Amino acid sequence: MTYYPPVSPYSAGLGGKCPRCGQGPLFDGFLKLRPSCEACGLDFAKADSGDGPAVFVIFIVGFIAVGFAFIARFVWFMPMGLALLLSGGFTVAAIVALLRPLKATLIALQYANKAAEGRLEE
Q1: Residue 3 located in a structural domain
Q2: Is position 30 within any domain?
Q3: How many domains does one find in the chain?
Q4: How many C-beta neighbours within 10 Å does residue 18 have?
């Protein structure tokens, strides 16, 4: 069995790398996982972040976007349409920027904490 030094789940996640070796890419597309790591062979079949990344992105980006729209409208006195357009543009850009690293980080945290399905002990 090959020894792999511990990899920070945060650096592996933010870099989109394998949570075991920190070298191979985690994604095959924008959000599609590879079947396995090219560098160490770790199987990604059981890696599932579920809706967690989307929920975190919604809360983070939504809070900032509403604050931005409020400031644009009532502090900078922008017309309503322009404030919503700028806030909407920010929202789309921030979602695209945050969704992939958050998904990879949650998968890396699952690996680091040895997350598994819940079991009832008898």
Answers
A1: no
A2: yes
A3: 1
A4: 27
Boundaries of domain holding 21: 9-112
Residues 19/40, Cβ–Cβ less than 8 Å: no
**Backbone angles phi and psi of 50, in degrees to 5:** 60, -140
User: Which pairs from 61-66 meet CB under 8 Å and 24+ separation?
Assistant: 61/91, 61/94, 61/95, 61/98, 62/91, 64/90, 64/94, 65/90, 65/91, 65/94
Q: With the C-alpha atoms ordered 37, 42, 48, 53, is the resulting torsion angle positive or negative?
A: negative
**Alpha carbon distance 74, 56 (integer Å):** 27
pLDDT digit string (tens) for 105-119? Answer: 999 999 999 888 888
Residue 120 lies in a domain: no
Q: Report, as an integer, the average pLDDT of 43-59.
A: 92
pTM as predicted: 0.88
